[in-house]
């Protein structure tokens, strides 16, 4: 019997509340009564996105419980904090997007370094995230089961051994036979009690992952899918149930990581809809930190949490499992978001591990690819148009002219992931742009494609930039100009479309370049899927690298392609 169990088990408190009901369960024991409950501690992360090195800029800061902005994140710090928080009752879990959209140090090796790290941190299981599908289900299976990459071969670390944890999804099915594409649940025995983990990923995954990544898969409604598995687990006697879901809500900027107030969205909908048998909902995807309580369908409080992103927060959840009912004592659940500060000593083993990969990737990362004359930012300066977005669109057009016959290019703003900064901290000198920096801007390894749209379709596509749900202004190449009147109703805002200065007619055929995410209808740009004569070209990162090599030094493009009336 564990001393910890005796120390923190609320056996006496419970029996004092229900003196008669619970006394009878008490075993007449030799020295002391068996505790009726056993403690369990969950330590959870989400949306790590391969951040082996401490993330920089706003990605590496977070508001702590006192309202102060502090530096946070980085694998070696995460390891130290986890070590301090771990006990013999603990299990490390995650809520998806651990890999994908990663920095070069991880992405250059298909995220094997990150998965190796997560194994070192003792991750037991994780919900699958949308980004785990970035390279398709076959690649995800390789990541779990091992083997070298079919195209790029083995990493410098040798043959990939696979992960010791499995990704879970109760709502991802194979299209051909409705079988689960991944394990729907995982049961872990902790301290003699069984805790079941059910995985979920946002059902919107097909609209936010490239079409090739989710080929052959079906993403079903989350609540129904999880409840089906919950009932199955209950029948098997697994009553302590935790849902790990890669879906979440938004909170106000700079609120405490332990606060709740959120904008109820898909996360709250699922958190409230899950069967009452589910005791906890650990979420992800929106990169927010919150500790919320919602009601389950039986009217009991149920925690709904998320731990920011990039390893900046660990969510610690402590609870008791009743040994008689095998269920979580709901009133015993305590959840806390713990900021992964950098004021602790970084874990030496993980520091060395990260340094090894840093050295391996440095040859690639530090290679200069061009130069800039000033900062080129992704911040919108003209109704949604940004200098860096313009530059990327120009690079994409140049990469798709030959072969793809592209006349214009359009880039989704969400795919421009960082600024290019003039001042350098490294040795390469001011204005120099390295491959590593360019990769940070374009980390998705999307393919450039081109399709034919009519003038009318291009108009309809541009109208899709403004909807009641969102504004997403596509970054245009210099060859496309138009006027957007934001005072007009959705669907009638775009006019004066010109390609190379010539007004576009409705029936004119235009070759439009974009990455495969957009061409597949991503971000709600469904008109792209009406395109014909699909052509596929180079990777988006290669388009940017080639363009910078050919045109440096590059001045920030003037953001005047879009004329905005507001
Ligand atoms: Zn996500």
Automatic annotation (TrEMBL):
Classification via InterPro entries: 5'-Nucleotdase_C, 5'-Nucleotdase_C_sf, 5_nucleotidase/apyrase, Calcineurin-like_PHP, Metallo-depent_PP-like
Domain called Calcineurin-like phosphoesterase: residue spans: 41-288
Gene Ontology cellular-component annotations: outer membrane-bounded periplasmic space
Gene Ontology MF: a single term: 5'-nucleotidase activity
Domain 5'-Nucleotidase C-terminal: 369-529
Superkingdom of this protein's organism: Bacteria
Region (Disordered): 8-36
Keywords: Hydrolase, Nucleotide-binding, Signal
GO BP terms in the entry: nucleotide catabolic process
The keyword Signal appears for this protein: yes
Family under the similarity heading: Belongs to the 5'-nucleotidase family.
This protein's name: Bifunctional metallophosphatase/5'-nucleotidase
């Amino acid at each position: 019997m564990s001393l910890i169990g005796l120390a923190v088990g609320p056996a006496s408190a419970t029996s004092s509340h229900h003196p008669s009901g619970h006394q009878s369960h008490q075993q007449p024991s030799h020295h002391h009564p068996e505790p009726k409950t056993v403690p369990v501690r969950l330590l959870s992360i989400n949306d790590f996105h391969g951040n082996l090195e401490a993330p920089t800029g706003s990605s590496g800061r977070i508001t702590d419980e006192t309202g102060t902005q502090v530096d946070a994140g980085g694998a070696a710090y995460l390891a130290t904090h986890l070590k301090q928080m771990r006990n013999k009752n603990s299990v490390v879990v995650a809520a998806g997007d651990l890999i994908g959209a990663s920095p070069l140090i991880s992405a250059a090796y298909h995220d094997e370094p990150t998965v190796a790290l997560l194994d070192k941190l003792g991750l037991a299981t994780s919900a699958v995230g949308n980004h785990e599908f970035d390279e398709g289900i076959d690649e995800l299976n390789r990541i779990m089961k091992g083997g070298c990459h079919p195209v790029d071969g083995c990493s410098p670390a040798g043959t990939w051994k696979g992960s010791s944890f499995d990704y879970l999804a109760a709502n991802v099915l194979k299209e051909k036979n409705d079988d689960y594409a991944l394990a729907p649940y995982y049961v872990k025995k902790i301290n003699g009690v069984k805790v079941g983990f059910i995985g979920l990923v946002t059902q919107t995954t097909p609209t936010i992952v490239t079409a090739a990544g989710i080929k052959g898969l079906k993403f079903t409604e989350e609540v129904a899918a999880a409840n089906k598995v919950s009932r199955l687990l209950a029948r098997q006697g697994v009553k302590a149930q935790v849902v790990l879901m890669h879906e979440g809500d938004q909170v106000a900027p700079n609120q405490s990581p332990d606060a709740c107030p959120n904008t109820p969205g898909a996360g709250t909908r699922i958190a409230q809809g899950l069967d009452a048998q589910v005791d906890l909902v650990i979420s992800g995807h929106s990169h927010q930190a919150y500790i919320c309580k919602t009601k389950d369908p039986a009217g009991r409080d149920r925690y709904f949490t998320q731990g920011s992103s990039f390893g900046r927060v660990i969510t610690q959840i402590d609870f008791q499992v009743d040994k008689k009912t095998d269920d979580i004592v709901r009133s015993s659940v305590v959840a806390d978001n713990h900021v992964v500060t950098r004021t602790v000593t970084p874990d030496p083993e993980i520091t060395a591990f990260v340094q090894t990969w840093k050295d391996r990737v440095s040859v690639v990362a530090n290679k200069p690819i061009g130069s800039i004359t000033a900062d080129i930012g992704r911040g919108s300066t003209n109704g949604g148009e940004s200098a860096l977005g313009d530059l990327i669109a120009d690079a994409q057009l140049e990469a798709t002219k030959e072969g793809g016959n592209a006349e214009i290019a359009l880039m989704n703003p969400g795919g421009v992931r960082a600024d290019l900064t003039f001042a350098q901290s490294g040795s390469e000198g001011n204005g120099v742009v390295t491959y590593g920096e360019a990769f940070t801007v374009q980390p998705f390894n999307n393919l450039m494609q081109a399709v034919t749209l009519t003038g009318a379709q291009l108009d309809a596509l541009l109208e899709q930039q403004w909807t009641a749900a969102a504004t997403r202004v596509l970054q245009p190449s210099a060859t496309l100009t138009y006027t957007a009147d934001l005072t007009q109703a959705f669907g009638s805002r775009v006019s004066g479309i010109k390609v190379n200065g010539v007004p576009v007619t409705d029936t004119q055929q235009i070759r439009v370049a974009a990455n495969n995410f957009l061409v597949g209808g991503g971000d709600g740009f469904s008109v792209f899927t009406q395109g014909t004569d699909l052509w596929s070209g180079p990777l988006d990162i290669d388009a940017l690298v080639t363009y910078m090599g050919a045109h440096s030094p590059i001045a920030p493009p003037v953001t005047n392609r879009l004329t905005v009336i507001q």
